[in-house]
Write a structure and sequence with these properties.
Length: 80
Amino acid sequence: MKANVYVTLKNSIADPQGFAIKGALNKMGYESVEDVRIGKLIEVELGNVTKEEAEKQLNVMCEKLLANTVIEKYRFELVE
């Protein structure tokens, strides 16, 4: 079973990279771009586990290592 984990900054945290990319896109003519937030995609290949066990393991992985939960939020999706 494979999982895609998405880690992004919390909305209350400034995103200087996102701000720089937004500015660049606006200068390229994409004036309709109002906001850009940068994040990470982490692909995790899990062995033969149940959906419930995978979700439990992923929550622990994210809380302990994959995301800094003080400034980041995370979500994941299972890809079977």
